[in-house]
Specification:
Elements lengths: L4 E2 L7 E3 L6 E5 L9 H9 L4 E4 L6 E2 L3 H10 L2 H17 L5 E6 L1 H10 L6 E5 L15 E8 L8 H10 L4 E10 L13 H19 L2
Parallel strand pairs: 3-4, 3-6, 6-7, 7-8, 8-9
Antiparallel strand pairs: 1-5, 2-4
């Protein structure tokens, strides 16, 4: 049985930065809201964003793939999408006029699904795409950050997804990081972490969000 680790403030979104700044919602991967997301969020808030990180697994996280699969089975997609909507509505009430969402792996998939609803001005997905069955029109700019070595199920391969985005007229930017594997940005997973690629991906993410969210 994999180990599950409780996290602080279970079920409560963590917020960084100033109210009224452009909002960025960070959606964690299937490992849960691991500690590495806090410095990531703080660094992004320092760029002038209001950053909120929800917990989609009610206080549990893990560093084991087997645990991640179990947590993924517990995912309530409707709840996840509603949680992002709630964060956006609250931030708009506090003065945030533009909204971006960043998602990692499972969180990237959720972020791309959410972006189809038209509530976001920019979306960033790390090592994630949508199948033809999931994919509708995404009416905002998309940044896709891919690992070089990854496994994709049939119908999920990035080139096909990118082609559909371009066919629909979605502005899309892609980067693939040589020598990396899935989860290269997750600093709580040292076996797959690539610090240099993660730093470059963060810089590109911040630049992309600044371009599309900051007046």
């Amino acid at each position: 049985m994999p180990d599950f680790v409780p996290i602080p403030s279970p079920g409560i979104p963590l917020a960084y930065g100033d109210l009224g700044d452009p909002l960025v919602v960070i959606v964690h991967d299937w490992y849960g809201r691991l500690p590495w997301l806090e410095p990531y969020a703080i660094a992004l808030a320092a760029q002038g964003f209001r950053v909120v990180v929800p917990d989609l697994f009610d206080g549990l996280c893990t560093t084991e793939s087997a645990g991640g699969r179990i947590l993924l089975e517990r995912l309530d997609l409707g709840f996840a999408l509603a949680a992002i909507d709630d964060i956006i509505q609250e931030a708009r009430a506090d003065g945030s006029h533009r909204v971006g969402v960043i998602g990692f792996s499972m969180g990237g998939w959720i972020s791309l699904l959410h972006a189809q609803g038209g509530e976001t001005d920019a979306v960033v997905a790390y090592y994630a795409s949508l199948t033809p069955d999931d994919h509708g029109v995404i009416p905002c700019p998309v940044l896709l950050q891919f690992a070089e070595a990854d496994e994709w199920s049939e119908g999920e391969e990035p080139p096909a997804f990118i082609a559909r985005l371009e066919e629909h007229g979605t502005p899309v930017t892609t980067h693939t990081y040589l020598g990396t594997r899935h989860s290269f940005a997750n600093a709580s997973l040292p076996l797959t972490r690539d610090a240099n690629a993660a730093a470059l991906a963060f810089a590109r993410t911040a630049q992309f969000l600044t371009k599309h969210l900051v007046d």
